[in-house]
Amino acid sequence: MSFVPDSAEFVAYVNYRQAFEATGNYSLFGTGPLVEIYAPAFAIDPASVEYEVSISLAGESSKEGSPTIAVLRIDSQELKSLDHALQSSAQVRRTEYNGHTIFSLLVRRRELETQLVLANLAIEGEHLVLYQGPSNIDPLKKILDTADHKPSQFFSQQSARTALYASGGTNGQYLALFIATFPTQIEGAKVAMKTVRTASQTVTSQIAFSFDSQDQARTQYGNVKKLYTGGKDYWIVGPFDVVAFEYDISKLGDQVRGL
Is 230 left (phi over 0), alpha (psi -120 to 50) or beta? Predict the structure, then answer.
Protein backbone atom coordinates (compact mmCIF):
# COMPACT_ATOMS: atom_id res chain seq x y z
CA MET A 1 0.00 0.00 0.00
CA SER A 2 2.43 2.59 -1.26
CA PHE A 3 -0.12 5.43 -1.04
CA VAL A 4 -0.26 5.43 2.79
CA PRO A 5 1.90 8.19 4.37
CA ASP A 6 3.35 7.86 7.84
CA SER A 7 0.96 10.56 9.09
CA ALA A 8 -2.10 8.35 8.56
CA GLU A 9 -4.40 7.99 11.58
CA PHE A 10 -6.61 5.28 10.13
CA VAL A 11 -6.26 2.91 7.18
CA ALA A 12 -8.88 0.54 5.79
CA TYR A 13 -8.09 -1.91 2.99
CA VAL A 14 -10.80 -4.11 1.46
CA ASN A 15 -10.25 -6.43 -1.51
CA TYR A 16 -13.57 -6.51 -3.34
CA ARG A 17 -12.49 -9.16 -5.83
CA GLN A 18 -11.39 -11.61 -3.13
CA ALA A 19 -14.62 -10.99 -1.24
CA PHE A 20 -16.68 -11.79 -4.33
CA GLU A 21 -14.68 -14.95 -4.95
CA ALA A 22 -14.95 -16.10 -1.33
CA THR A 23 -18.71 -15.62 -1.05
CA GLY A 24 -20.01 -15.90 -4.61
CA ASN A 25 -22.16 -12.91 -3.64
CA TYR A 26 -21.69 -10.18 -6.24
CA SER A 27 -24.10 -7.85 -4.47
CA LEU A 28 -22.01 -7.92 -1.26
CA PHE A 29 -21.14 -4.24 -1.69
CA GLY A 30 -24.50 -3.28 -3.15
CA THR A 31 -25.88 -3.27 -6.67
CA GLY A 32 -25.49 0.42 -7.46
CA PRO A 33 -22.34 2.41 -8.29
CA LEU A 34 -19.71 3.00 -5.61
CA VAL A 35 -18.89 6.37 -7.16
CA GLU A 36 -20.96 8.47 -9.54
CA ILE A 37 -19.42 11.45 -11.32
CA TYR A 38 -21.94 14.07 -12.34
CA ALA A 39 -20.11 15.62 -15.30
CA PRO A 40 -18.73 14.00 -17.30
CA ALA A 41 -21.32 11.35 -16.43
CA PHE A 42 -19.47 8.26 -15.24
CA ALA A 43 -20.24 5.47 -12.75
CA ILE A 44 -17.83 3.06 -11.06
CA ASP A 45 -19.44 -0.20 -9.97
CA PRO A 46 -18.09 -2.56 -7.27
CA ALA A 47 -17.48 -5.27 -9.89
CA SER A 48 -14.88 -3.08 -11.62
CA VAL A 49 -12.92 -2.41 -8.40
CA GLU A 50 -10.19 -4.83 -7.31
CA TYR A 51 -9.61 -3.17 -3.93
CA GLU A 52 -10.09 0.08 -2.04
CA VAL A 53 -7.78 1.75 0.49
CA SER A 54 -9.30 4.47 2.66
CA ILE A 55 -6.76 6.73 4.37
CA SER A 56 -7.57 9.22 7.15
CA LEU A 57 -4.94 11.86 7.83
CA ALA A 58 -4.48 13.99 10.93
CA GLY A 59 -6.15 17.41 10.66
CA GLU A 60 -3.79 20.34 10.48
CA SER A 61 -5.53 22.08 13.38
CA SER A 62 -7.80 21.15 16.25
CA LYS A 63 -10.75 22.63 14.33
CA GLU A 64 -10.29 20.30 11.37
CA GLY A 65 -11.53 16.79 11.10
CA SER A 66 -9.38 14.03 9.68
CA PRO A 67 -9.43 14.32 5.88
CA THR A 68 -10.11 10.95 4.25
CA ILE A 69 -8.83 9.93 0.83
CA ALA A 70 -9.99 6.85 -1.07
CA VAL A 71 -7.64 4.96 -3.39
CA LEU A 72 -9.37 2.49 -5.71
CA ARG A 73 -7.64 0.03 -8.00
CA ILE A 74 -9.94 -0.22 -10.99
CA ASP A 75 -10.16 -2.39 -14.07
CA SER A 76 -7.67 -0.96 -16.58
CA GLN A 77 -10.19 -0.47 -19.39
CA GLU A 78 -12.59 1.26 -17.02
CA LEU A 79 -9.84 3.57 -15.82
CA LYS A 80 -8.81 4.41 -19.40
CA SER A 81 -12.42 5.27 -20.22
CA LEU A 82 -12.64 7.52 -17.17
CA ASP A 83 -9.34 9.23 -18.00
CA HIS A 84 -10.50 9.89 -21.56
CA ALA A 85 -13.82 11.30 -20.33
CA LEU A 86 -12.08 13.62 -17.87
CA GLN A 87 -9.46 14.80 -20.34
CA SER A 88 -12.13 15.48 -22.97
CA SER A 89 -14.54 17.34 -20.71
CA ALA A 90 -14.79 21.12 -20.82
CA GLN A 91 -16.82 21.13 -17.58
CA VAL A 92 -14.03 20.00 -15.26
CA ARG A 93 -11.58 22.32 -13.50
CA ARG A 94 -7.97 21.10 -13.64
CA THR A 95 -4.94 21.70 -11.44
CA GLU A 96 -1.51 20.50 -12.51
CA TYR A 97 0.69 19.18 -9.71
CA ASN A 98 4.07 17.43 -10.06
CA GLY A 99 3.12 15.67 -13.27
CA HIS A 100 -0.41 14.85 -12.10
CA THR A 101 -3.67 16.37 -13.21
CA ILE A 102 -6.11 16.91 -10.35
CA PHE A 103 -9.74 17.22 -11.46
CA SER A 104 -12.35 19.12 -9.41
CA LEU A 105 -15.93 17.99 -9.94
CA LEU A 106 -19.16 16.79 -8.32
CA VAL A 107 -19.52 13.18 -7.20
CA ARG A 108 -21.78 10.96 -5.14
CA ARG A 109 -20.30 8.26 -2.89
CA ARG A 110 -23.03 5.76 -2.07
CA GLU A 111 -21.94 4.87 1.46
CA LEU A 112 -21.04 8.42 2.50
CA GLU A 113 -23.48 10.83 0.84
CA THR A 114 -26.82 10.77 -0.91
CA GLN A 115 -26.30 14.20 -2.49
CA LEU A 116 -23.66 15.44 -4.90
CA VAL A 117 -20.57 16.83 -3.18
CA LEU A 118 -17.41 18.57 -4.33
CA ALA A 119 -14.50 16.21 -4.86
CA ASN A 120 -10.99 16.22 -6.26
CA LEU A 121 -9.52 13.21 -7.99
CA ALA A 122 -6.43 12.10 -9.84
CA ILE A 123 -5.39 8.99 -11.71
CA GLU A 124 -2.12 7.45 -10.56
CA GLY A 125 -1.07 4.33 -12.46
CA GLU A 126 -3.89 1.81 -12.11
CA HIS A 127 -5.51 3.72 -9.26
CA LEU A 128 -8.15 6.40 -8.85
CA VAL A 129 -7.34 8.73 -5.94
CA LEU A 130 -10.43 10.54 -4.65
CA TYR A 131 -10.81 13.20 -1.97
CA GLN A 132 -14.23 14.49 -1.00
CA GLY A 133 -14.50 17.62 1.05
CA PRO A 134 -13.13 21.17 1.19
CA SER A 135 -11.52 22.79 -1.83
CA ASN A 136 -8.12 22.49 -0.13
CA ILE A 137 -6.38 19.73 -2.11
CA ASP A 138 -3.33 19.37 0.15
CA PRO A 139 -4.48 15.96 1.50
CA LEU A 140 -4.73 14.64 -2.05
CA LYS A 141 -1.30 16.06 -2.87
CA LYS A 142 0.17 14.28 0.18
CA ILE A 143 -1.13 10.93 -1.06
CA LEU A 144 0.27 11.55 -4.57
CA ASP A 145 3.63 12.60 -3.11
CA THR A 146 3.76 9.42 -1.05
CA ALA A 147 3.11 7.27 -4.10
CA ASP A 148 5.67 9.19 -6.19
CA HIS A 149 8.56 9.60 -3.80
CA LYS A 150 7.89 6.97 -1.14
CA PRO A 151 9.06 8.93 1.90
CA SER A 152 8.82 7.27 5.31
CA GLN A 153 5.82 5.06 4.55
CA PHE A 154 3.27 4.06 7.13
CA PHE A 155 3.93 0.32 6.85
CA SER A 156 7.70 0.81 7.08
CA GLN A 157 7.25 1.97 10.68
CA GLN A 158 8.16 -0.58 13.33
CA SER A 159 4.86 -0.10 15.20
CA ALA A 160 2.82 -0.87 12.08
CA ARG A 161 4.98 -3.88 11.12
CA THR A 162 4.74 -5.46 14.56
CA ALA A 163 0.98 -4.81 14.73
CA LEU A 164 0.64 -6.51 11.34
CA TYR A 165 2.54 -9.50 12.71
CA ALA A 166 0.40 -9.70 15.86
CA SER A 167 -2.83 -9.49 13.85
CA GLY A 168 -1.75 -12.35 11.59
CA GLY A 169 -1.19 -10.29 8.45
CA THR A 170 2.56 -10.52 7.80
CA ASN A 171 2.24 -12.95 4.89
CA GLY A 172 -0.20 -10.63 3.12
CA GLN A 173 -2.89 -13.32 3.09
CA TYR A 174 -5.70 -11.06 4.23
CA LEU A 175 -8.85 -9.95 2.45
CA ALA A 176 -9.28 -6.83 4.57
CA LEU A 177 -7.15 -4.84 7.00
CA PHE A 178 -7.97 -1.99 9.36
CA ILE A 179 -5.51 -0.05 11.49
CA ALA A 180 -6.06 2.87 13.86
CA THR A 181 -3.37 4.91 15.59
CA PHE A 182 -5.73 7.11 17.62
CA PRO A 183 -7.03 6.15 21.09
CA THR A 184 -9.39 3.18 21.15
CA GLN A 185 -11.86 2.02 23.79
CA ILE A 186 -9.03 -0.06 25.29
CA GLU A 187 -7.20 2.18 27.76
CA GLY A 188 -3.54 2.73 26.90
CA ALA A 189 -3.70 1.08 23.46
CA LYS A 190 -1.42 2.85 20.96
CA VAL A 191 -2.39 0.93 17.84
CA ALA A 192 -5.34 -1.31 17.00
CA MET A 193 -5.14 -3.53 13.91
CA LYS A 194 -7.62 -6.03 12.48
CA THR A 195 -7.11 -8.48 9.64
CA VAL A 196 -9.85 -10.49 7.95
CA ARG A 197 -9.12 -13.79 6.20
CA THR A 198 -11.28 -16.48 4.62
CA ALA A 199 -10.83 -20.23 4.19
CA SER A 200 -13.23 -23.18 3.74
CA GLN A 201 -16.38 -21.05 4.01
CA THR A 202 -15.10 -19.51 7.27
CA VAL A 203 -14.18 -15.93 8.12
CA THR A 204 -11.42 -15.28 10.65
CA SER A 205 -10.99 -11.81 12.15
CA GLN A 206 -7.95 -11.17 14.33
CA ILE A 207 -7.56 -7.92 16.29
CA ALA A 208 -4.32 -6.84 17.98
CA PHE A 209 -3.97 -3.97 20.47
CA SER A 210 -0.50 -2.53 20.98
CA PHE A 211 0.72 -1.20 24.34
CA ASP A 212 3.93 0.37 25.60
CA SER A 213 4.99 -2.84 27.33
CA GLN A 214 4.04 -6.45 27.94
CA ASP A 215 3.18 -5.56 31.54
CA GLN A 216 0.62 -3.05 30.30
CA ALA A 217 -0.74 -5.64 27.84
CA ARG A 218 -1.18 -8.06 30.76
CA THR A 219 -2.96 -5.34 32.78
CA GLN A 220 -5.44 -4.65 29.97
CA TYR A 221 -5.93 -8.30 28.94
CA GLY A 222 -9.06 -8.67 31.11
CA ASN A 223 -10.59 -5.51 29.62
CA VAL A 224 -10.01 -6.82 26.09
CA LYS A 225 -11.79 -10.08 26.97
CA LYS A 226 -14.63 -8.15 28.61
CA LEU A 227 -15.18 -5.75 25.71
CA TYR A 228 -14.59 -8.25 22.90
CA THR A 229 -16.75 -11.14 24.02
CA GLY A 230 -17.39 -14.21 21.92
CA GLY A 231 -13.82 -14.61 20.69
CA LYS A 232 -12.57 -18.02 19.68
CA ASP A 233 -9.22 -17.35 21.31
CA TYR A 234 -7.37 -14.66 23.30
CA TRP A 235 -3.64 -14.34 23.95
CA ILE A 236 -0.74 -12.00 24.71
CA VAL A 237 2.29 -11.73 22.46
CA GLY A 238 4.93 -9.20 23.48
CA PRO A 239 3.22 -5.83 24.08
CA PHE A 240 0.03 -6.96 22.25
CA ASP A 241 -3.32 -8.27 23.38
CA VAL A 242 -4.86 -10.33 20.58
CA VAL A 243 -8.37 -11.69 20.06
CA ALA A 244 -9.53 -13.95 17.22
CA PHE A 245 -13.10 -14.46 16.03
CA GLU A 246 -14.49 -17.06 13.64
CA TYR A 247 -17.68 -16.70 11.61
CA ASP A 248 -19.56 -18.35 8.78
CA ILE A 249 -18.71 -16.92 5.36
CA SER A 250 -22.16 -15.30 5.25
CA LYS A 251 -20.90 -12.82 7.89
CA LEU A 252 -18.06 -11.51 5.73
CA GLY A 253 -19.92 -8.31 4.87
CA ASP A 254 -20.11 -7.36 8.54
CA GLN A 255 -16.41 -8.00 9.07
CA VAL A 256 -15.17 -5.77 6.24
CA ARG A 257 -16.95 -2.67 7.56
CA GLY A 258 -14.23 -1.65 9.99
CA LEU A 259 -12.63 -2.25 13.37
Answer: left
CB atoms within 10 A of CB 203: 24
* Contact criterion met (CB below 8 Å) for 215 and 227: no
CA distance 214 to 234: 15
**Residue 175 CB: number of other CB atoms within 10 A?**
23
Beta strands in the chain (DSSP E): 8-15, 35-37, 42-44, 49-57, 68-74, 93-97, 100-109, 117-124, 127-132, 176-180, 191-199, 202-210, 233-237, 240-248
Contact between residue 18 and residue 26 where contact means Cβ atoms under 8 Å apart: no
**Model pLDDT for residues 196-236, shown as the tens digit of each residue:** 999 989 999 999 999 999 999 999 999 999 999 999 999 99
Q: Name the pLDDT band for 184 (thresholds 50, 70, 90).
A: confident
Secondary structure in 3-state letters for 193-205: EEEEEEECCEEEE
- Report the C-alpha gap between 72 and 93 in whole angstroms: 21
The one-letter code for the residue type at 229 is: T
pTM above 0.90, yes or no: yes
Domains of the chain by residue range: 8-149, 157-255
- Percent of residues, the chain, with pLDDT higher than 70: 93
pLDDT in tens, 40-93: 999 999 999 999 999 998 865 444 567 889 999 999 999 999 999 999 998 899
Element at 166 (helix H, strand E): helix 158-166
Rounded to an integer, what distance in angstroms lies between the CA atom of residue 255 and that of residue 246?
10
